[in-house]
Structures are given as structure tokens and as C-alpha cells.
Specification:
Order of helices and strands: EEEEEEEEEEEEEEEEEEEEEE
Number of helices: 0
Helix content: under 10%
Radius of gyration: 36 Å
Number of strands: 22
Oligomer: single chain
Largest sheet: 6 strands, antiparallel
Shape: rod-shaped
Length: 294
């Protein structure tokens, strides 16, 4: 069946009553999904009792491939054919082995405050959940904190799995960090937190995107002869500066009133005189349900 490939075959044992012409049997790979094992002529003298001395045991190792159907049974069939000397072939014996193909599914959510002031600390949270039907191994979390206006604070990274604090090595990646969790089982939740600082020179009402990536594998380790199915998920968190508002008197109904009575540069107004104010709203680059000026 599609979704599996042969690795090797091992002759574990042959009964003491058996004499095999080919021991181990000759392996012929017909195509990626089929092979034959030829024992050649076999002698098995009768002792009147079928027992361990009449048994051949083989181990066949196979690897599940990426084209297997996930979350479904994988059925593998073997057929034993015996052709007696001077007699018609016996009816073939058919056996099947069934395994269930599983695969982890990871989701990443990165969150942060919607808006902060320049110079403020930005607390980021990465929440990794695993569904699907398998275990995710070698879970690598990378956050390069690439925006120049977002400054990573080393020493602030924490990691938990199901609220249990994890001891992890935190390495450098870009201007941020990378860490590895050994594995995540179905239903577990990993939470990574860290702090960064919004630059004091950031432009008003701008938004700073910040992307994190989680990579994982379906088998542990890095053995090239036993590769798994790798995967990756990403998410970002957009942090904006606080909206800005300025209000400035720009004109009066009687220019003769001037501005010299009290504070130079500040309009003097007489009773009944009108003034015009200019209000400038600088808004962040985010979706806003409502903007109200009062």
C-alpha cells in the first residue's frame, strides 16, 4: 500500500528441522511498494508434529512515507506461496499487518499589547498548542525580533509546558533568540514569554510587526537515514505606538487683540471674540472599530 517503503529484511531464525537453499532468502525489490523473498528449495522432513522446528521468523523494517494518509490505518499485505515437489502449488496464505498513521499538528499564536509608548516594555507571549494524533519532536522556536524599533531584552525568556517551567538553552537568532523543546505530546500547551523595548525614537503612530516561527519533526533526532515529516508554523504580533493628539489655537476673529498681554505667542481674546483650534489626530496602522474625539 502507498505510504510505506522497505528499509531492510532480517532472517531472525529458521527451525532446526528446515534446510533452506537460500539462507538468508534472496531479496528482490519489484517496485517501491513490493518485494519478494525467495528461500529456494526447502527441505522439511516430517516428524509428525508441527512445532518450532518448522517455523521461519523474519523481521521486515519499513518506513512510513510522506504520501501516507494521515489519521487512517495503513494496511500491509504479505502472501506466502509454496510449490511442493511433484504436486500442484498449495493455496497461498495471506496475512496483513495494520498500523495507524499519526501526525502532529501545531498551532502558534503570538500576542502582545496592541499599543505602547516609546521606551515602554513590550511583553510578548508565544502560545504553542498541539493537536492531530502524534508527538512533535525537536520543537524549535525562533523569534529574531527583526524590527529595529523593537529591542529584545536578553535574559527575559521563559518556557513552560502545561504550566510546568522548562529548563531550556536560549541561543541567539538575529536580534532575538532560538530555543528547543524536546517534544510536545497531543493536547499539551507550551508558552514562551519574553520582553522587548519599543525604541524611544520610533515614529508616531507606526506599527512594528514581529514574526515568530516554530519548526518540528515527526521523529526524534537528526539521523539522515531515518528522516521524519518536518513542519513549521508562523505568527506575528503587531504593536503600535499610542495614538497622538495635538490641539493648537490657529486664528481669532479679531487680530487686533494680539498676544502681548500675558504670554507671548498665546492669543489674547476679548469677551465675545471667537477662536479657531486645529486638532491633529495621528492614528496607528491597525484595524479600529471606533474612533471618538471628545
Amino acid at each position: 500500500e502507498a505510504g510505506v517503503e522497505l528499509i531492510d529484511v532480517e532472517l531472525v531464525s529458521a527451525g532446526t528441522g528446515l534446510v533452506l537453499t537460500n539462507s538468508p532468502p534472496v531479496l528482490t525489490v519489484v517496485d517501491p511498494l513490493n518485494f519478494t523473498l525467495d528461500f529456494g528449495a526447502v527441505s522439511n522432513p516430517s516428524d509428525g508434529l508441527i512445532g518450532p522446528d518448522d517455523v521461519v521468523v523474519l523481521n521486515v523494517r519499513a518506513r512510513v512515507t510522506s504520501d501516507a494518509t494521515v489519521n487512517a490505518p495503513l494496511t500491509n499485505t504479505a502472501v506466502l506461496s509454496v510449490d511442493p515437489v511433484s504436486d500442484p502449488p498449495l493455496s497461498p496464505s495471506v496475512a496483513t499487518g495494520v498500523v495507524d498513521v499519526v501526525e502532529p499538528v501545531l498551532e502558534l499564536e503570538k500576542s502582545a499589547p496592541l499599543a505602547v509608548n516609546p521606551g515602554d516594555t513590550i511583553p510578548y507571549t508565544l502560545t504553542i498548542t498541539i493537536s492531530g494524533t502524534g508527538v512533535a519532536y525537536d520543537v524549535s522556536v525562533t523569534d529574531e525580533v527583526a524590527d529595529p524599533d523593537v529591542i529584545f531584552q536578553p535574559g527575559t525568556v521563559t518556557a513552560t509546558i502545561d504550566d510546568v517551567v522548562q529548563t531550556v538553552f536560549v541561543g541567539a537568532a538575529g536580534d532575538g533568540f532560538v530555543l528547543t523543546l524536546p517534544e510536545l505530546a497531543e493536547g499539551q500547551v507550551a508558552v514562551i514569554t519574553y520582553n522587548a523595548t519599543l525604541s524611544t525614537t520610533v515614529a508616531d503612530a507606526t506599527s512594528q510587526p514581529n514574526i515568530a516561527t516554530v519548526e518540528f519533526d515527526s521523529v526524534p533526532g537528526t539521523d539522515p537515514s531515518n528522516p521524519g515529516q518536518s513542519g513549521a508554523v508562523t505568527d506575528d504580533a503587531l504593536v503600535a505606538t499610542i495614538p497622538d493628539l495635538t490641539k493648537t489655537p490657529i486664528a481669532t476673529s479679531n487680530p487686533d487683540t494680539g498676544d502681548g498681554v500675558h504670554t507671548p505667542g498665546v492669543f489674547d481674546l476679548g469677551i465675545g471674540e471667537t477662536v479657531t483650534y486645529e486638532l491633529v489626530l495621528t492614528l496607528p496602522e491597525i484595524a479600529m472599530d471606533r474612533v471618538v474625539l471628545a
